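Hi everyone,

Forwarding the result from last night's run.
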Amino acid sequence: MKSRFFLPVLIALIVQGCTTPATSPSVGNDTPATVPVTKSGHPLAVKPAPSKQPETEPKQKKFAKAPLGTPHGKKTEALTGELLYYLLSAEIAGQRGRLDVAVPFYLKAAELSRDPQIVERATRVAVYARDEKRALKAARLWVELQPEKSEAHQVCAALLVRTGEIDEALVHMEWVLDHNRQGGRNGYMLITSLLSKEKDKQSALKAMEKLVARRPDEPDARYAYANLAMLMGRYELAEREIEKALEQRPRWTEAHILRANILTRKGEKERVLTLIKEAVEDAPKDTMLRMYYARKLVDVKKFEQARQQFANVLEYKPDAYDAMFALGLLNLQLQQIDDAKEYFQRLIAAGVRVEESHYYLGHAEELSNRPRMAIQHYAEVRKGKNYVDAQIRIAVILAKQGEIDAARERLQNVSAPTLDMELRLYLAEGEILSTAGRLQEAEAVYSMALQQMPDNSQLLYARAMVYEKMDRLQESIADLERIVKNEPNNAEALNALGYTLVDQTHRIREGKRYIEKALKLKPGDAAILDSLGWAYYRLGEEEKALHYLKQAFEKMKDPEIAAHLGEVLWVRGDQERARQVWEDALKDTPSDKVLLNVIERFTE
């Protein structure tokens, strides 16, 4: 995509009717000797206007009295034909993607006019074009003309770091720190943000190291250095610097959090928890630190401990709505339904995160087996990220109550703002129909969706499963093969295709290869281990089959895995163990068809 160039100050000047007589532009070392041309031979730049324009003389004189100015009242070059030539040539070159031509023209215009807007423009275009030599030249002029402008110093500092002129860069960094209106730490973080974008990490860190050395007693400097080192992957250096900052300011919340983030990147999760816990105990009323600690506990799935920490936050700060929301989610996760409801209701009463709270109250009511109340809450979700999911949940509840057509109507009336949400609606409608045994209608929904989203793997997979239920085996295999062709590393599709070939065709060895590839992609996956065990059983290698099926059953007590494991045990003569496996599985899933079929085949 070509760059878009537009110079407001140039357009404004042209609108003013400033048509100073043109002269032949002088060409310096940084300016092309001739006007550039396109491949077809047409000039890129505009020819200077004729030298005699008596009818515009009055306007010219009027403009001469009001030249472009600088904040210091220094006069700049009026819009002569020469200046206009350089500006228009630069703009046209930029519009045509010739930055190598535009940059020197802009720089010449900047030097000629000494107008801050043109100089800034020249700097930015040169930076964008990665012409560091000219960019630095323009940036220095920008600082000269607007020495009070922080952005000019920042750009100049970055370019000087890039060219290895660290000491001069420090002068500009010091200026930014001394003149930052928001305080010391923000100034340092501004420098950190600036340096973190540099490709030469060593030069950037060296510049920050020298800056910190000039201010050794400022913990903000240490903090910024540690943050930069972390961003650049120098974790040991980052840890050393943040420890020094904490020595200078022991109860600094942000520094404790930065140290934890550094250690997290180093993989020291347990140490993170220990240090943050100690910091929380040292400053129990620091709710920001306690919230961070609680979230870290959630990350390692220590939900009960996290719940206690969030509750402690509310004790010190009753209107800590983030903690309230987290407690609602945690209690939902821990099946403490009444407690979860209480927190979400409090949020709704406070007018905070109302739609999200209704959404999760809907979940809570579903878990409480109160479908009508669940629908009422889901219906309150009228916008936001949970809107489509709420409509899907309503449809699922209606379908469970036998209102299949009402469920479909609900989904079809949802206006999906994105293609991804449209996909979820199609998948939900197809699943509802498939579960209800309306397989032809489910297949029609998936096929219609595939016309809109060809080769979508989720739709193809769903349709393949429906085809299988309809005994349209070849079509099911074709959809799975299509996914694998488009996505060779789709483990779920590889496993499904492999299992289908193993279980229902004579292409057992081919199916086994697909399953083995899936297992390499997802080692230890219970469903894939089950498929591989079944493949070995179909090949007559019962010992290997038993090895994989036992692994699968240990990982997941699924009725289909139980059916397979029991069958292999029975065939190998261990009928007692087979019966035990089946009976245990029946307690949890008494109506599973695969399990019931295998028991019927072998015990009656």
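The domain at 383-480 is CATH 1.25.40.10 (Serine Threonine Protein Phosphatase 5, Tetratricopeptide repeat).

Cheers,
N.
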